Amino acid sequence: MAGITLAQAEAQLTAWLAASTAVSQGQAYTIGTRSLSRADAKEIREQIKFWDSQVKRLADGSGGGIRARGITPV
Q1: Is 54:4 a contact under the CB 8 Å cutoff?
Q2: In terms of residue numbers, what domain contains 55?
Q3: 2, 7, 13, 38: which one has the fewest Cβ atoms less than 10 Å from its Cβ?
Q4: For 28, phi and psi rounded to 5 degrees?
Q5: How many CB atoms are located within 10 Å of the residue 28 CB?
Q6: pLDDT tens across 21-74, in order?
Q7: Burial letters for 52-69: b for 16+ Cβ neighbours within 10 Å, e otherwise?
Q8: Is 65 among the domain residues?
């Protein structure tokens, strides 16, 4: 199974930002099968934080691979 792509992460971030805008104006918003309202503002904020971090991670190419520090060659 391949991981998510930068484009997919950006699309998710865009969707959650749109949800935040709609809910902040007193509206409900639907993403897929989920309907969100003002009461879901905390969930929306958490999703924005998550997808923003995914976009940043994928954009900088770090991909979460192994890092080696302070290695002494033998």
Answers
A1: yes
A2: 6-59
A3: 2
A4: -95, 160
A5: 13
A6: 887 887 777 888 888 877 678 898 999 999 999 999 999 876 555 566 777 776
A7: bebbeebeeeeeeeeeee
A8: no
Contact 11, 4 (CB under 8 A): no
**Total structural domains within the chain:** 1
Q: Length of the chain, please?
A: 74
Spatial distance between the Cα atoms of 18 and 31, rounded to a whole number of angstroms:
10
Residue spans of alpha helices (H) in the chain: 6-24, 41-59
Phi and psi at residue 36, to the nearest 5°: -120, 150
CA atoms within 13 A on the CB side of 17: 8
- CB neighbours (10 Å) of residue 16? 23
